[in-house]
Design brief:
By secondary structure, the chain is of the alpha/beta class. Helices cover about 30% and strands about 20% of the residues. It has helices at about 1-15, 35-45, 60-65, 70-80, 115-125, 150-155; strands at about 20, 25-30, 55, 85-90, 105-110, 125-130, 155, 170-175, 180-185. The longest helix has 12 residues, at about 1-15.
Length: about 190
């Protein structure tokens, strides 16, 4: 696993795209602070850049780097959630401008997967995580369902968990600094 992490980190640091297994589904990833890399993701997915992307961080310490104020309820959600959950936070910071939504929010998940955790720690920063499909096409449930267009469009394919079947994307909740909680995807 360390060899795969080292190769993926090298690609990320050089502004490239990776195809990698996450705690939910196979994802297309890049350095979440690199606007040119984020633009490559939008082009590969043939997706308009007004539709925000999710990114992953290793832990709440890393989360604090990218969100100005984390509502206290977020920590409660981390502690009680048994399923992967992505939280949309207000007041994103230190991320690529084209990754941040028009309302200055950002969707971030702390994955429970060991590979993702180690990758994020070694990279020492946020990584984009968007489904490995062309926009509008079904989300692949396994590596073998990923289109050749996506596979050929990335700079590196992580050679782990190709046999793994994915259940579903994470749930998404928006936590506003105003105290409003909104379920986006259950």
């Amino acid at each position: 696993m360390q060899t795969e992490i080292n190769k993926a980190v090298q690609i990320l640091k050089n502004g490239g795209l990776i195809l990698y297994p996450t705690d939910t589904i196979w994802g297309i990833g890049c350095d979440a602070t690199n606007a040119e890399a984020v633009e490559k993701v939008f082009k590969l997915k043939q997706r308009h850049d007004s539709k925000a992307l999710i990114c992953l961080v290793a832990d709440d310490r890393m989360l604090k780097k990218y969100v100005k104020k984390i509502p206290d309820v977020a920590f409660d959600i981390f502690n009680v959630s048994e399923e992967p959950i992505t939280i949309i936070y207000d007041d994103a910071q230190h991320l690529a401008k084209n990754l941040i939504a028009e309302d200055n929010s950002i969707a971030i998940r702390i994955p429970s997967d060991d590979f993702c955790f180690q990758l994020l720690r070694r990279f020492n920063g946020a990584i984009v995580s968007t489904s490995a499909n062309i926009s509008g096409m079904p989300t692949p449930k396994s590596f073998k369902e990923i289109s050749q267009e996506v596979i050929k469009g990335v700079d590196y394919v992580v050679n782990l968990h190709h046999e793994k079947n994915c259940s579903k994307p994470s749930s998404i909740i928006k936590l506003g600094n105003d105290g409003i909680v909104k379920i986006i995807r259950a």
